[in-house]
Design a protein that fits this description.
The chain is an alpha/beta fold. The protein contains eleven helices and nine strands. The longest helix is centred in the last third of the chain and has 22 residues.
Length: 271
C-alpha cells in the first residue's frame, strides 16, 4: 500500500480547493502545507468553478453551513467532477438539523464524491438518508465497539457501493472502507478529540493524498488517516496541554518521513 503514495504528495504538491469550516480554516490550511500540498480557501459562487479548475482536488466541509456556501459547494463539486478531480465531503453535524440533512441529500444527488468522512453518527445519518433499509445498532455514544464492528463495516461497505466513494468513519479507531477492500486504522490519541479541528485537518490531509494519487484513492486515504493518527501520537508525547498539542500536531506532519511512518503505522486489512 505504502509504495510511492507518501512521496507523491511531496513531489506533486497538489493544490487543494477548500470550501470549509471557518472555525478551523487556518488549521486546515497549515496541515495541508505541512503535508506537502498547498491550500486555496475560496467559497464565493462567483469564483469557485474557476478556482476548482486550477486545483487538483476539492474539499467540502459542512461545519459552518450557510445558504450561500451550499450553492458554491454544488457548483465547485460539479465542476470538479467535470474535470475528474477527486472530491472529499465531511457532512459535519448532518443529523443536527433539517437544513443539514437536506444539504447532504442535495450534495449526494448533484456531486460524485471520492471520499466521505465523518464520525459514526454522521455516517449513519448519511446512510439512512440514502433510503437503505439496513440499520446499525451502536452504543449510546455511537462509538465503534467490538460488538457493533461487523455491522458498522457492513453499513460502510453498502454506502461505499451506493455512493462509489471511499467511506471513512473516524473514532478511537478508524475505518476506511471501499467497495472491495477495507482497513482498520488504530493510530491516534485521545487528545485529538479535545481540540477543535482534528477532523477538519484530517480532511485536508486526505484531499492532499488523493490529489497526488488519484488512481489509488482507497490506499491514499488509508495512509492519510494513519499518518494523521500517528502525528497525533507524536504530538501527545510532546504537548503540555491542548494548545501545544495542536502546534505539535502540525509540526509532526511537517516532519513526517516515509521511514518514520512505516515504523508507526497501524493498518489492518479487514476484507
Amino acid at each position: 500500500m505504502k509504495e510511492n503514495i507518501f512521496e507523491n504528495v511531496k513531489k506533486e504538491k497538489p493544490l487543494i480547493h477548500c470550501i470549509t469550516n471557518y472555525v478551523t480554516v487556518n488549521d486546515v490550511a497549515n496541515i495541508i502545507l505541512a503535508a506537502g500540498a498547498s491550500p486555496i480557501m475560496a467559497d464565493d459562487s462567483k469564483e469557485v468553478e474557476e478556482i476548482t479548475s486550477i486545483c487538483t482536488s476539492l474539499l467540502i466541509n459542512m461545519g459552518t453551513l450557510n445558504k450561500r456556501t451550499v450553492e458554491s459547494m454544488i457548483l465547485a463539486g460539479k465542476y470538479a467532477n467535470k474535470l475528474n478531480h477527486p472530491v472529499v465531503l465531511d457532512p459535519v453535524g448532518v443529523g443536527a438539523s433539517s437544513f443539514r440533512v437536506e444539504t447532504v441529500e442535495k450534495l449526494l444527488k448533484e456531486v460524485k464524491f471520492s471520499v466521505i468522512r465523518g464520525n459514526i453518527s454522521e455516517i449513519k445519518a448519511v446512510f439512512n438518508g440514502t433510503g437503505a433499509v439496513m440499520g446499525v445498532d451502536a452504543s449510546e455514544a455511537d462509538a465503534l465497539t467490538k460488538e457493533n464492528l461487523e455491522a458498522v463495516i457492513a453499513m460502510a461497505r453498502t454506502l461505499a457501493k451506493q455512493t462509489h466513494a471511499v467511506i471513512v468513519i473516524s473514532g478511537a479507531v478508524d475505518l476506511v472502507v471501499g467497495k472491495e477492500h477495507g482497513y482498520l486504522v488504530s493510530n491516534g490519541h485521545p487528545m485529538m478529540s479535545q481540540i477543535t479541528g482534528a477532523g477538519c485537518m484530517l480532511n485536508g490531509v486526505i484531499a492532499s493524498f488523493i490529489g497526488a494519487n488519484q488512481d489509488r484513492v482507497l490506499d491514499a486515504t488509508t495512509m492519510a488517516v494513519s499518518i494523521m493518527g500517528y502525528c497525533g501520537e507524536m504530538a501527545a508525547s510532546r504537548a503540555e496541554g491542548t494548545s501545544s498539542f495542536r502546534m505539535h500536531l502540525i509540526d509532526a506532519m511537517s516532519q513526517m518521513t516515509k521511514e518514520a511512518f512505516e515504523k508507526g503505522c497501524k493498518i489492518e486489512s479487514i476484507f
